[in-house]
Please model this.
Amino acid sequence: MTQSFRTASGGLVDRNRPLTFSFDGQQLEGFAGDTLASALLANGVHLVGRSFKYHRPRGIVTAGAEDPNGLVQIARDAARETPNLRVTQIDLYGGLTATSQNCWPSLRWDLGAVAGIAAPLIPAGFYYKTFIGPRWLGASRTWSRIFEPMIRRAAGLGRAPSRPDPDTYINRFAHCDVLVVGAGPAGLAAARSAVLAGAKVILCDEQSEFGGSLLHESQSLLDGLSAREWLNRQVQELESAGVTMLKRTTAFGYYADNMVALAQRLTDHVADVSAGAPRERLWQVRAREVVIAAGAIERSMVFPNNDRPGVMLADAARSYLNRYGVLVGRRAVITTACDSAYAAALDLHASGIEVAAVCDLRQQAPPALASQIEARGIRLMPATTIANTTGGKRVTGVIINGDASGTNKQSIDCDVVLMCGGWTPSVHLHSQSHGRLRWDADELVYAPSDKRQGQQSAGACTGRFTMPEVLADGDAAGSKAATSVGLPTAKPSLPEAENWVSYSGGHLGMSDTTQPTSLSKAFVDLQNDVTAADIELAIREGFRSIEHIKRYTTSGMATDQGKTSNLHALAIAANVTGRSIPEIGLTSFRQPYTPVTFGTLAGSGRGYLIDPLRTPASDPWARAHHAVFEDVGQWRRAQYFPNTGEDRRAAMQRECAATRNAVGIFDASTLGKIEVVGPDALVFLERMYVNSLTSLKPGRCRYAVLLNEAGFIIDDGIIARLSDDRFHVTTTTGAAAPVLNLMEDYLQTEWPELDVWLTSITEQWATIAVQGPRAREVLGDVCPELDLDHTAFPHMSVIECELQGVPARIFRVSFTGELGFEINIPTGYGLSLWEAFSEAANTAGGCVYGTDTMHALRAEKGYIIVGQETDGTMVPDDVGLAWVIGKNKLDFVGKRSLDRVGQRRSDRPQLVGLLTESPKTVLEEGAQVTADSNPPAGTAALGFVSSAYYSATLDRSIALAMVAGGRARIGERLFIPMPDQSIAVEVVAPVFFDAPGDRLNG
Amino acid sequence: MLLIKCPYCDEDRPELEFHYEGEAHIARPPDPSTLNDEQWAEFLYVRSNSRGPHRERWRHLHGCGRFFNAARNTVTDKFIVTYKQGEHPAIDGDDVEPSP
Amino acid sequence: MGDFSAVALFRHALSGHRQWPAQWRSPDPKQSYDVVIVGGGGHGLATAYYLAKEHGPLRIAVLEKGWIGSGNTGRNTTIIRSNYLWEASAGIYDHALTLWRDLSSELNYNVMFSPRGVMMLAHSLHDEQVFKRHIHANRLAGVDNEWLTPQQAKDFCPVLDIDPDRRYPVIGAAFQRRGGVARHDAVAWGYARAADRLGVDIIQNCEVTAIDRGSDGAVRGLETSRGRIEGGRIGVVAAGNTSVIMEMAGVRMPIETYPLQALVSEPVKPIFPCVVMSNTVHAYISQSDKGELVIGASTDQYVSYSQTGGLHVTSHALEAVNEMFPMFRRLRMLRTWGGRVDVTVDRSPIIGKTPVPGLFVNCGWGTGGFKATPGSGHVFAATIANDEPHPLAAPFSLERFRTGEFIDEAAAAAVSH
Model:
């Protein structure tokens, strides 16, 4: 028989839409509008999981986001598996498939439950005291090889999905005058008064319906209407007033400057999700004012064996009854310290559930409620606590303490125990906003006090526990928020509330403090299996701060973050240490309020969108020609262009040889380019760069080095003087943005008197290098209008011209040691110019080349690459660039630092060349250089190999290295110790080819 | 994500548009060669790292591109004031004369 | 005061665990000590422990403003490795790694050191060059570190996505097998208990408000929220508050303090066998024994003591995690938190003497201090006891900011810790 615990009528579920679902393989039926929890309970299923440590059977405790036990794995398909979802938050859909977690072989018969037998041996923190292992075995080994794997297997809850998640997630930034968090009575009232004042309002609620406690309110009348009728009217009014209404949307984090993050669940409640529909959306709302109307959370009670399935919160039972039409059992015992449980007792009784007893822990039951209870013939027992429960996978009864002496015990049979330890305001968001909390010893709550941001708390989350107060508070908060953003106050009339339920009263800590805790399993934190005895043990062992207690016992650290239990832990600690609760301290409320999907937080930042991909002009051609690419910063650059059958080395050899012998074409567009313009441009560059530039004539270029103020090389490039007041400066690929930022920094903040403008032109100009003995011929072929004669256009010069009507800047520069030109053309023309050059190069016996060949050719010439020979710790002299420094300059960025002891040491690393004794052996970049052929471990290296290639030009391997005092070691024999051998090398000058540089002038 | 008022744009904009640029009002010495190593190290590396009001530089990188100064409380991360170069509004907790 | 062991656990079970003594005393501060350590985090407690054990007899106190381990010790992602580039760094971090190995039995406290391997992913040829330089330098220094191909990396960490068609594909990894993780709180507690047993006074809820110097300039004592305490030598190990404390003695520091965020997922069954770090996409990840994925993000950009940061920093770390491990996209973030890290210009710590006689400082560990805890405490204890830098600490002096002799791991490594 299905849904045997469903009422005949009532509730908000749609009885015309039955839905089938499965739990642990069992087919069950529920209705549209159910949560998985209500549907399970409708079928009499309480047992939903096993506890973390002892594997005790556990049931549904609450009806909301705070549930400690009801965690299941939901699988839509093989790739859409989600662990650790809460049954109380899962909206039922047809075909939903849920399985229990952390049990084997089954939920009912879980072998892990043997941990319960060993429970006396494994109190809080037991693992710190054992598994230490004998030292001779290596202490860490005993732990990490034997015990840790066992512990790890036993721990964990659900299983992580095994396949990539195919779902998409999106995000949205939003701005509003007033964000209202929570659509219970306070939130609705706040949204109403704010929107009536003219505010732009966003209202969000974590549940699938707006209304909060009104959704299961059976007795109260508002403006003479039932709670549900009033609610429907409110929601309609707010919608038509233009409030942005977000259901299934949890405000999970309050961040700086009134940014609140919301997670909206879009499709998890839908049976058939249309393809491509995003699963969740992250809202980042920047609100001028925030009203937190997050409500309060019903507390559990701490008594022995309070964890049996069937022991649940009283108001949750009322919610299952009134909202879902579900009977949580047939015979209930209620234990409470709070008035609200009386409403549960009355509603349950009215629905036909037998209420065997209402045990009120307080000395005096509230008289008005007491008479209502007694009028219905329900047994009311004041000053009564529960001494124990009976049962296994379901509670079968309770043993109650009739009086404080503990002698007057009696058993009562039941199949549910409904508890209410009072209500805990949800101060999470207030606290996350750095608002302060104050302890209210009368109401036993931490309530919001001082605030640091533009927010107010309203309603039950402030510790106000009656409907009139909550409504008035919400209304006032909404008005005040509107006023704060400069809107006139609207004065909507407050709804009249009648017959409201009181939520006041409560108790903290063990229900019965006379009982010795260590003999019983009285759970505080159900999910992490932390008992009152565990907390006492922690205190006994010297853990006094609540943060210590939490960390030692793990109380409040489970996936529910202790929402129903944290105050009990505080109270027990206070009781044991004889201190007040505020003296114990309070653990911080950290984001998120409830768990948030990784995918939601990453949003659309996925795949190629995690970082922009930048491509140079030739990229489409390179892809069409099957180039192999490498990532350089954000750029994708062609590394080599293999012909059919060629591997990396073969391609590089061919490209190198063709360039040295004929011509090579290279896309250098990724180099940073900065235009420096203005009357003081020269002065500015003189101050920035180490070079002396005063003698640089318009039309000429100079190789330049840039240091940071600490004296270390951070960039190099070409400074080309286009005219007296205009320079075209290049940077390395990765340094374009930081160098521009550095220049702007000095220009704006140190030398604002200089009349200079800086413009990034990296994206505006494509740069194609034409290099090799036939470079002039190829360039002339493509651009016949140019005068490329050596005297007209010598090495290190620049011309501005037009190529077929398109403006161009042509540099005669070389990073290969060959006759070379770099042609800058507006980026839109880059590809066609590249195509023309590649064709012309082919005709001339040359080819295009990639970064591999660029690297090898420059290494043959001993040209450094910043970031390869240098590593942020090199000064110009280290890499043989002292000559670049302007001799008579009084100052430039970094100059002063070059005078420090550390930068003048004779054993500083110096750039040298290395030749392996065996010419075919190519060294590994990063390999170390030593004097000893077989250095013992712990030997300090002399330096490292920074660049190493097989040189096609020389038909042998070459390397550049940074070696301590290297220039004085030229001619020495040193060693490169490798795992399998030691490679002998000769130290040589770092120029392997055309040392005089004749080819540059070819 | 902080909300920062660019004093040049006169707009509150999200932190993503800005780049933090370190402590403010540490001017580069006009002639570094006159400083000894100790003084030079002080200029380069020693920072007040204040707990509380902190004078610092930001750049509206993805906006107007200007460098500006701010006083921000490093305990609460709240900006006290942002201001243009050359200005130096007083704030509570000022107890030292700023360097030029 | 019994030792911890399985036998002790069994014995105490018989008395319902009601007989366990406090793991450390809660003494009132005495009037004077030979050495006062300011800061009751892992580094400070370790310093006190090694001072008492190896340099005693000394009267030692540890002053902690809040509760021990409440700073970065209890807030980090617990990564332990020693494969640093420069000899000085590899020296001190490997010294720590050696101490980690036997730390549980040394302290008679299971700190759960788990050498499960630390993998640093290379995403570009430049990364590969840099990591190989590390590997070769480490081999020479006697520190294990090896290169893994993408497939080898995946064999070790099966959930790693090595599809070459990724925005930043994995092209290899540097792997230190001896690296791993430990239980951060247990490190503070283990050192505290062991130091306490050697007579060290651990004084919690004791905030230092002033440092008193004599006419000779040397330290004489401290003013605290629990009264004046005299101390001949003072060791400041107060990460996240270093500048504030040192300022009390008139010493201005070359450090800045930034927020660093981390997060954990909900617990899942074992899925992640090692530690994976990626600097290019900015995230570190491992799985705790409890089953939570522990994820480190990058620092926020501004100086802050707030211990909170922006959501965009968290999101960015999760983008990276989702890219490397696309099956984790449906997992959920359970808890986030922030720490305060003291950062130096060369991303290396400062350990040693200060211009003030009797005042010592240990700070500037940036984002990577946890791994150094035992080594840091050990060499700092020797430095304080001998008034002379321990050889492994010597390169990390304050002097280097004047001389320019940096140990720049950040520039050289292109990797943060």
Remarks:
- The longest helix of chain A spans residues 467-484.
- Residues 516-578 of chain A form a domain with the Arc Repressor Mutant, subunit A fold (CATH 1.10.10).
- The interface with chain B takes residues 255-259, 284, 286, 434, 452, 709-710, 741, 744-745, 748-750, 752, 890-891, 895-897, 899-901 of chain A (CB under 8 Å).
- Chain A has a mean pLDDT of 95.
